[in-house]
């Protein structure tokens, strides 16, 4: 089932018009949220990031797009498709709902919300092997647009195919200066003793909701956070490497090439994260 502009429809009854700009040009932004006990985690942060991304992309924000409206639309779908108190993965896609070529006729928008059940209520900490390496075939230019969650994710798609073909669980993405910006599916953190290092947004990494949660949470655990340029050589020197996103929370890498990592700090952060949700 899909919430399509407020109307709940069976997925089989929906279709994407050939003129849809999200299909033709990737002219859309999206948010992925984690639902716990029927309610989205960190909803206010998601809402304000969505509004900011729509403004950056010059989309017209409808007066109806209040936090209360979008929250009701999410809960309406989750309750109808799953059940009260469900744990789920929800995705909101907002697209420019107009015709035109590169120049749209207008900046009005439509939206679509989907929901898939999640097995776990809390963030689980996986300790199974998690292998990472560099993805160097395509680079991301640093800049404001690279921080926005648009539906144009070709680098992430090709990198994920590369990882699968090479027996990897994830890869690190580089910007055009060959500096680390993020992983294929989240932000990256390096641990050096009691210090966390993560690339700043100016390097081109996504403005991740979980990234900010970890930055805010770390000082309460006696950890220092440095938002600084990270080179691929820094990964080899780090004690730990972990990836964060809103669905999996904190995922520790066990290996990067021939380097084996510890996981203690990542596990501590994951435990503290569960405590605040």
Description:
The structure is a single chain. The chain is of the alpha+beta class. The chain folds into two domains: about 1-115, D-amino Acid Aminotransferase, Chain A, domain 1 (2-Layer Sandwich); about 130-275, D-amino Acid Aminotransferase, Chain A, domain 2. The chain has helices at about 20-25, 45-55, 65-80, 155-165, 210-215, 230-235, 265-275, and strands at about 1-5, 5-10, 30-35, 40, 90-95, 110-115, 130-140, 170-175, 180-185, 185-190, 195-200, 225, 240-245, 250, 255, 260. The strands form three sheets. It has a six-stranded antiparallel sheet. The protein has a five-stranded mixed sheet with strand order 9-8-7-15-16. It has a five-stranded mixed sheet with strand order 12-11-10-13-14. A hairpin with a 2-residue loop joins strand 1 (about 1-5) and strand 2 (about 5-10). The longest helix has 15 residues, at about 65-80. The radius of gyration is 19 Å and the shape is globular. The two termini are about 25 Å apart. The model has no long low-confidence stretch (mean pLDDT about 95).
Give the secondary structure arrangement, pairings included:
Elements: E1 2-4, E2 7-9, H1 21-25, E3 28-36, E4 39-40, H2 43-56, H3 67-81, E5 88-96, E6 109-117, E7 131-140, H4 154-165, E8 170-175, E9 180-183, E10 187-192, E11 195-198, H5 209-217, E12 224-227, H6 232-237, E13 240-245, E14 249-252, E15 255-256, E16 259-260, H7 264-276
Parallel strand pairs: 7-8, 7-15, 11-12
Antiparallel strand pairs: 1-2, 1-6, 3-4, 3-5, 5-6, 8-9, 10-11, 10-13, 13-14, 15-16
